[in-house]
Amino acid sequence: MNRVIARRIYVNISGLRVIRKSFCSDAAAKVSASTPLTKHLNVAIIDSNPALGKLDSIKKEDPPDPRVSTVTPATISFFKDVGAWQYVEQHRHAYFDKMQVWDYTGFGYTRYNARDVNKEVLGCVVENKVLHRSLLLRMQNTDFRKTIYPSRLTSMALLPSSSPVNADGTSSTTSLFTRGRLAKLELSDGNSLYAKLVVGADGGKSRVRELAGFKTTGWSYSQNAIICTIEHANENHCAWQRFLPAGPIALLPIGDNFSNIVWTMNPKEASDCKLMNEDDFVKTVNHALDYGYGPHPKSSSLGSADMWSWLQGDATISAREHFEVPPKVIKLASERMVFPLSLKHANDYVSKRVVLIGDAAHTVHPLAGQGVNLGFGDASTVSKIIAEGIAVGADIGEVSLLRKYEAERKPANIVMMAVLDGFQKAYSVDFGPLNILRAAAFNSAQYISPLKRSIISYASGEQRLPLPLPLFS
């Protein structure tokens, strides 16, 4: 067996990319390389994804891949900080400064404008392959000690702590492992690694989480998401989301005349939509985004804006904007892909020498596109905590240090998961009085300016939720 002996400080980023939101291993490795206190760490990436070993060119004339992510301004700042956003901008992407959300009953809608919070954009839609390639390019163009293992993690062992390390630091790697100072990882290619810290960034079916014995809580939504790329006659610059009886449909700009569809529905409907011929599918999408299921909402629904005037404060720009009909879909531009939806949350994010980030720690409903942003937030925070530990000479694999990461990220992730889960449940029931309450929520978000600004700032990743309120987008 080929044995790879790690240096005394060695971070193992395990990234078995099994679902679309698992960029976190690359992100954690890159941010570690960009921080003065952590850039000298020896980093290994374990990933059986063939794309990690080669960087295929992305041609602008190719239609967009249907697998995309909506990244918030906070995530964009993260990419800029690690030097990866410059690579994103070399490929197709679409900033959007407006968003419209409405209800199929026609009772309520709300619009958001980046200028409501003195920003230029609300977010940017990027193909997953572009985000992935940008992180890899930045990582390859940065001089830090990294090793990529195109393999799979098969086993992981960690012994209890025993006697302290010799003061002269002469303890061998094997001795450090037997004293609980290192984790030992066995790979499918026969390699054996020792690591001070194992970062599980391997998605919703995390092997690291399984081997480390982390328990999870969650459930299936009995819903599927159908995703695809469609084409318009003109370029789309707004993000649209309509709540339908079976689930929301989102229309997201992706650049040029293309948009991305993310449509949540029951498994039978998703299967039918996937098998429809192209013309019928395009008609079905336009029906869902226009008059299908109910009328267009009017600004006077549940009374005019005057009924909210006593709570408005300075009126936002978007409060004066009327409901708009989304741009018509004229063509299907990609295959249709179907994914089952579920919620899963690790009861703990950390144990000795192991930390979970991204979908390995939490998977959420895609209705607000927040899953990938939560993962990048995890990657940024765990790297910051590692740097703080190094600064004071702490063992970066000790639970007492890693708990600081959990204390910062777990509450924020749980709040977002609760909000998204609440929305999913609220819109799974078609009941008259509940429909009125939902419409009131939309209208309050449209006309109560302080609430709207707080929602935008929170959804942008720039502040914590100020109150235990549901988000209305």
Mind explaining what this structure looks like?
Keywords: Monooxygenase, Oxidoreductase, Ubiquinone. This is Ubiquinone biosynthesis monooxygenase COQ6, mitochondrial. The chain is of the alpha+beta class and about 475 residues long. The protein is about 30% helix and about 25% strand. The protein has 13 helices and 21 strands. The strands form four sheets. Strands 5, 6, 13, 14, 15, 16, 17, 18 and 21 form a nine-stranded mixed beta sheet that branches. It has a six-stranded mixed beta sheet with strand order 8-2-1-12-20-19. It has a three-stranded antiparallel beta sheet with strand order 3-7-4. The radius of gyration is 24 Å and the shape is elongated. The model is unreliable at about 1-20, about 300-305, about 305-310 and about 465-473 (pLDDT under 50).
